[in-house]
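ok trying again, last paste got cut off:
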Amino acid sequence: MDQKTLAYINMYAVLGALRQLCQLSERAREILGRGRMDLAISVRGGPEAMLRFEDGSMRIVDGTQSAEILLKFSSPEKFNGMIDGTVTPFPSKGLLKVGFLLKKFTRLTDLLAKYLRPTEEDLKDEEFFRISTTLMFHVIVEAVAQVGNHDKLGTFSAGWMVDGNVRLAILDGPEAYVKVKDHHLTAVHEKAEEVMSSMEFSDLHTARDLFDGKAASFPLICDGKVQMKGMISQLDNVNRILDRVGLYLA
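nice, full thing came through this time. structure:
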């Protein structure tokens, strides 16, 4: 497992899921409250992005110069350590804003972790199950793009993919697509107007069983619970990348 690839996954798939968390969870919006705060994260030899928290929402925007808080990490390993809780970050800019990190940001990421790593008891609640599975879906879609762009085996698979959109969706649930352009993958967390191929799960429970490793994809395809349409070579390479995603998100 490549630490640089993991850093990109942690930045754009894991922390990026805060966007969907704020859309899905009233509790998340309450934690953030009103107002705006820009948090920039810079990883030497890895990703650099700015998280903009504004009036109960979050999005990742380009540029880090305007950020009130800046967290710098000397390596992907250090940044990954912050995500798994073994490294405590110290802001190189915005020391007086540290209260946001210690209170709102920490509480928000703790809430995200609860949804992404739930207990069996948590999942018995129907609304919790829906939010948790939806968040996992978006994390996985984003991770497909990051693995395809940075992981050695992932880039090999991406190298065989022609330009076009690969739709990923759960029937009556979330939908997204992976845009392929010159063998570079971009995850877009909305409905695609045009697609080259599609992978659709029949329901949230089917998707969850596959995400959790409780079911294998081939039997689900045979049973019609996972429908694959369009260019098979695209879907085959997406599935190869998904195997790598499973390693990083385990």
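cool. The mean pLDDT is 95. Residues 122-249 form a domain with the Nonspecific Lipid-transfer Protein; Chain A fold (CATH 3.30.1050.10).
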